[in-house]
Amino acid sequence: MIIVMKADTQPDSPELSQVIQMAEGYPGITTQLHRIEGATRSVIEIYLLGPTGVVPTEPFEEFTSVERVVRVTEKFRSIGRHGGGLEAVGFDYNGVHFSQENLHVFPGVCAVDEPHNLEDTFKALQENGVQTSRAGAYKPRTSPYDFQGKGAACLPWVFELAGKFGIRVIAMEVTHEKHVNEIRQALRESGNATGVMLQIGTRNAQNFELLKVVGQQTELPVLFKRGMGITLEESLNACEYVASGGNRRIIFALRGMKTNLGDPHRNFVDFAHVPVVKRLSRLPVCIDPSHSVGSRAKSPEGLLDIFNVTAQGVIAGANLVLVDFHPRPEEALCDGPQALLISELPRFLEDVQIVRKAYEERVKRTALPD
Amino acid sequence: MIIVMKADTQPDSPELSQVIQMAEGYPGITTQLHRIEGATRSVIEIYLLGPTGVVPTEPFEEFTSVERVVRVTEKFRSIGRHGGGLEAVGFDYNGVHFSQENLHVFPGVCAVDEPHNLEDTFKALQENGVQTSRAGAYKPRTSPYDFQGKGAACLPWVFELAGKFGIRVIAMEVTHEKHVNEIRQALRESGNATGVMLQIGTRNAQNFELLKVVGQQTELPVLFKRGMGITLEESLNACEYVASGGNRRIIFALRGMKTNLGDPHRNFVDFAHVPVVKRLSRLPVCIDPSHSVGSRAKSPEGLLDIFNVTAQGVIAGANLVLVDFHPRPEEALCDGPQALLISELPRFLEDVQIVRKAYEERVKRTALPD
Amino acid sequence: MIIVMKADTQPDSPELSQVIQMAEGYPGITTQLHRIEGATRSVIEIYLLGPTGVVPTEPFEEFTSVERVVRVTEKFRSIGRHGGGLEAVGFDYNGVHFSQENLHVFPGVCAVDEPHNLEDTFKALQENGVQTSRAGAYKPRTSPYDFQGKGAACLPWVFELAGKFGIRVIAMEVTHEKHVNEIRQALRESGNATGVMLQIGTRNAQNFELLKVVGQQTELPVLFKRGMGITLEESLNACEYVASGGNRRIIFALRGMKTNLGDPHRNFVDFAHVPVVKRLSRLPVCIDPSHSVGSRAKSPEGLLDIFNVTAQGVIAGANLVLVDFHPRPEEALCDGPQALLISELPRFLEDVQIVRKAYEERVKRTALPD
Amino acid sequence: MIIVMKADTQPDSPELSQVIQMAEGYPGITTQLHRIEGATRSVIEIYLLGPTGVVPTEPFEEFTSVERVVRVTEKFRSIGRHGGGLEAVGFDYNGVHFSQENLHVFPGVCAVDEPHNLEDTFKALQENGVQTSRAGAYKPRTSPYDFQGKGAACLPWVFELAGKFGIRVIAMEVTHEKHVNEIRQALRESGNATGVMLQIGTRNAQNFELLKVVGQQTELPVLFKRGMGITLEESLNACEYVASGGNRRIIFALRGMKTNLGDPHRNFVDFAHVPVVKRLSRLPVCIDPSHSVGSRAKSPEGLLDIFNVTAQGVIAGANLVLVDFHPRPEEALCDGPQALLISELPRFLEDVQIVRKAYEERVKRTALPD
Questions:
Q1: I need a surface site. Which of A28, A222, C7, C240 has the fewest CB within 10 A?
Q2: Å from A275 to nearest chain D CA?
Q3: Which residues 166-185 in chain C show a CB within 8 A of chain B?
Q4: DSSP string of A115-178, one letter each residue
Q5: Mean pLDDT of C111-126
Q6: Comparing B66-70, B108-112, B332-336, C34-38, which segment has the lowest mean pLDDT?
Q7: Which long-range contacts (CB under 8 A, 24 or more apart) does A73-77 make?
């Protein structure tokens, strides 16, 4: 059971204490306090743990500072909205705020290769005012004989370069629990020059042991990519493995589904699920247009499909965009053909901005009242 | 082989005659003239029919009024762009222009039921300046024991009402060739009070005999809905059955694909294919958000999923939106739960307008040059 | 409601009359008599039509000659087993008996081409004691520019050849209602030299208008192929369109599902559904190994995949096998690469026989009691 | 490049030495010897490692004791047949021989629960002459709040019981690399009372880090279950991660694919791929009928679907059958509804035997010559 306090309730408010006291008066019940930071207001939630089945909701609803009392269902216990009663969970990491209400673009390289390529990439980001990026050091590949990523060895110079160009958060895939420690250590050794969001790739979406590991540390946030051949509900269940470990700083990412019904795109673009994930869960939603589309194909109007599907995610309220850029795609060791050029970055950002503005206008003017 | 003339070439230009004469000088070659009406310019195309394999392109390319010469490939012979060499085929019907460049919204009832419901619907359309609608008289249903539509009997009053409220084009599904004649006759008997676009439903996407019939008449345009379990390429091939019959006034409609990977939506929304269909074919592209989503679920921002996926289609350049409305969804004999309310029409149209404006800005500012 | 009489009940039995009389005593109830011909016994079923909701079952169950009373549910009303209470519906056509209990092989050509090829095929069938075959005169093809079948013109010589070699039933696809009449007329003109089972192809599985037409005639039985992108339940619902028209002589055919998860086979082989269709419906079940596999690939043991998947259908109780043979695959106008050679027919039939024998042993020795 | 020696070549044959010497004479080439143990003969293969692109095949083919020389392609480098040139790789483990030619049934519990249930299971196996079983200690579950398995704690008594009842190999899923060590240690501590085949579940089919770990040890064989939403080719590629680590004792398991096209079965049964895997790879092929079907549904003949799909795998040459049994399904902590009863074991084994005999007859009588 979760008791949501009204927005103006202070952490030291006497009513808050009374509510907690009443809750803990029921046999076997303990409480936890969570503070949800939204864009315009912050909210305190009191979690009741233990045999809550017999705890009534009415006594709590009578407090004037209680907004509502929500019974938590089994489904998506930690990340769910439980029938709409709960707000999204925003969070701050390394100076960047993530929520279901704002938008960050993460342009970057699919796989780290040479320092000069990463330097050119980060430099372009800085010039365009972008502080969030992607850069893969560990690459899971379909065949064992393909390039598997630069690994831990590249982390020192990756983080140093990131710091140099003001990158605050890098999304970086991990495929083994030891990668988490390698990244944490390298971050510390870089003097925390930047921050890292641990990315769980689609192939590991049901690698529950790895999910537990990234869920049991709370230093680094987690970017969870939905699984390929499973339903959205099963992916959200898998995401619970992260949250149930204690780490609540999670982003849910859509990256297309593997089925030939989506041809000629590499994957069947699933960004119509952006509002669905926002409705079912409290997590900010990320889209990955590059891996969904998988090519630089262009519409007759001159808009790349990657631009178009990005626009489709953003117009429906996506909160993060993970997108492949490369200064020299011909040198890329992985997925070069789908990379956008550094010279296309301003155009891409302008495109996103046009669409985001339209999204905001939609929310203001055409959203239905509750 | 198709010879595309420059935009300012007049039908009576001497060079045009010379080109035709030269073409018909090759053994066994005959020609056909097609005029493509675009938003800003119209183009004349000369089709060379016969053994064109041995006809060279160079002599034609030397004419100053020839823009380009395109070799037609097997794939999507009539509707394809053949490597980008051909422009989209726009067309006029009953005073409405359709093309890959503009946008029309077709709000209406999934299935015709009672006159007062249709009257309320058409009246609302007129009040909101909409002249295009949908209204199903023949309904293919999964079970033979479900309501199968009002049939030919309702056509007279449907067309009369349409005329009364200034509706110029109604999209109407046909499932049997006799329906085409019934509609044509009822239209005539109504004094052509309105116009009809023949809709081929997803279940009949590979009913080649029906496709031939609607393709062999040229009075009414055709709205072809892609098939459920087949690839996009196979649906475009099926669409060729319409075009190869002679009718070139075709719209290609996306309506979601049937797979549980799209749950909880009724179908997996496939509007990322909007730019793909525009790239591969010369046809205007329609989206059907109602049948894709199948419910009135709403995002936390208060935007219905139907609004959101419509926005996703429009932001990527969709040309038609087929959307279910009903003044009294509880009286609807089919798909009531997914219908928008008549009172929501202004909001829906405003939403579309916001997004269309953003799309146009994208084309102007972020499209890549050729 | 259906009242199933005990197996030894005679059509002129006094108790049968009493049951009917009692049934028709309820307000608004009329009755129909159906005789189900099984391999070892025949059963009389009395259908109660009208407002059966208020008719109790108990009074009927008290008759000693009543085996059971089954309430008919909406789902698969005509073809369903309604919870197991009803037996399969076998039928005779042109001297051949079809049921869920026996097995017929239909080797033949995918598409009729030249008389000498069909003659060689039928001759081989006769030499191997086979009286059932397939031969397509009307071919629905993915592209309108592919060979579309010989059409009505070939029917006279096809039927004459069939008669000459003792073929009693040919499975023949129809894609338009006029084909049904063309076939019936040609059959008559051939002096009913053979019989035809009307095949509904997978692309027309939800062409409800065509299903109604073949369901409203009762001269020719129907072979219904499941739809490609729809669930088994939806295909069974479509099959109801045939049955609800009055024609109860229906075979349900499995032919693989279109999804790349089945690669490298042409379709995802779905013969695990053989027992499912037998459980849910009263229809004999056919398998089409040729279109499922789509190639002559061979296992290391030397067994063609087409042989192997046939064996998989038969070992689970399939009742018909529709399989492509061709005396000269290089001359085939359609699907030549998947055709078996006439010289392989004896081997194929022996393979089927080995497996069918094992199936029968399984039923005898390892089936569970009710 | 692989040089396959004739079957009667002895390891100490002088020609073998000459072949090796010639091979190592090419610059940068080293060799490895592998001995393939088939049912009726054993074969020596010489692997050439290094820059084999410039090594000609002719000089080797001239040796009378060389059967053939096979150029290894990228695709399925270690596990592939490379165009049919290589035989299957059989292997022995703990006294049991596995190959593409024989058949073992692994009846057992999905998840280990109480000792008395496991004891009853193993006892029944012994009474029926079965020495191979399944028993899950580590269970990956869709939700983190479901039972996750007894873990390492149960291993001592599981192995002791296995030893007591003569079980030689238990298939046991591992989801974390530490499980491999826990199992190896517990085996040693049990005095190697039994053996374990490490099972990689479908959710970890592309958990490449785990695949590397089980591939880099050679003590225990690996049972690899194909991934859910990926193609067969991608699953075989993933399997290469095991083989490329050095462990060649691998079984490839089919367990159905997740798509609603397979409804009402839990997964779309994919056993038509049995001969495909045998053709593409050198690995023995396992089927898992319990997880494919997911229920105890029964055909009208009285054959459980689980029996039927098992029969479908076996009739096409499956080499292992992994099947859930439970003495008290109502006590099962996982997948009870799909478990067969211990009392059904003799019937199941007899069913398998009937079908295997038919398979062997097919190979003898209806297989095509090369």
A1: A28
A2: 23
A3: 175-176
A4: HHHHHHHHHHHHHTT--EEEE-SS---SSTTS----GGGGHHHHHHHHHHTT--EEEEE--SHH
A5: 97
A6: C34-38
A7: A74/D143, A74/D145, A75/A233, A76/A236, A76/A237, A76/A239, A76/A240, A76/A280, A76/A281, A77/A240, A77/A244, A77/D145
Q: Which of residues 311-340 of D touch C (CB under 8 A)?
A: 311-312, 315-317
**β-pair type (B222-225, B195-200):** parallel
What is the C-alpha to C-alpha distance for residues B117 and D363, in angstroms, rounded to an integer? 68
Local confidence band at A110 (pLDDT 50, 70, 90 cut-offs): very high
Single pTM value for the model: 0.94
With CA atoms as reference, report the closest residue to A141 among A192, A94, A175, A106: A175
Spatial contact of D276 and C252, defined as CB atoms under 8 Å apart: no
- CB hemisphere CA count around D367 (13 angstroms): 18
What distance in Å separates the CA atoms of residue A140 and residue A149, rounded to the nearest whole number? Answer: 8
Looking at residue A60, what DSSP letter applies?
H
Q: Which residues of chain A have a CB within 8 Å of the CB of C259?
A: 259-260
Q: What is the pLDDT of residues B16-64, one digit of tens each?
A: 999 999 999 999 999 988 887 765 677 899 989 888 888 999 999 999 9
Q: With the C-alpha atoms ordered C172, C176, C180, C186, is the resulting torsion angle positive or negative?
A: negative
B8 falls in which pLDDT band (50, 70, 90)? confident
Q: How big is the CA angle at D175 (ends D171 and D181), to the nearest 5 degrees?
A: 75
Instruction: Out of A147-151, C74-78, D216-220, pick the least confident.
Output: C74-78
Contact A321, A347 (CB under 8 A): no
Residue B5: strand pairing partners: B66
For the cut 70, the answer to whether the pLDDT of residue C175 exceeds it is yes
Amino acid at A152: A
The CA-to-CA distance between both ends of chain D, in Å, stands at 23
Per-residue model confidence (pLDDT) at position D72:
85
Structure tokens at D312: 């479908």
Q: Are A254 and A293 in contact (CB under 8 A)?
A: no
Phi, psi of C133 (to 5 degrees): -150, 175
Q: List C-alpha distances in Å: B317 to A354, B100, B360, D36, D41.
A: 15, 8, 9, 60, 66
C-alpha closest to that of C124 among C141, C145, C109, C139: C109
> What pLDDT does residue B38 have?
65
- Cα dihedral A111, A117, A121, A127, rounded to 10, equals 170
**Chain B interface disruption, residue of D228, D230, D257, D261, most B CBs within 10 A:** D261
Per the model's pLDDT, the better-predicted residue between B74 and A256 turns out to be: A256
Q: Is the peptide bond before B284 cis (omega within 30 degrees of 0)?
A: no
Q: In the prediction, which pLDDT does C61 show?
A: 93
Q: Provide, as residue numbers in chain C, all residues whose Cβ is less than 8 Å from the Cβ of A260.
A: 259-260
Q: Which residues contact A230 (CB under 8 A, 6 or more apart)?
A: A205, A206, A238, D228, D229, D258
Whether C68 contacts chain B with CB within 8 A: no
How many angstroms away from the CA of A134 is the closest CA of chain B?
A: 23
- Phi, then psi, of A210 in degrees rounded to 5: -70, -40
Q: Which is nearest to B160 in space by CA: B198, B120, B193? A: B193
Tokens of residue C315, six digits? 């070992």
pLDDT per position as a tens digit, B134-192: 999 999 988 888 888 999 999 999 999 999 999 999 999 999 999 999 999 999 999 99
Tens digits of residue pLDDT in A170-228: 999 999 999 999 999 999 999 999 999 999 999 999 999 999 999 999 999 999 999 98
- D351: distance to nearest CA of chain C, Å? 6
Per-residue confidence (pLDDT) for residue B85, from 0 to 100? 74
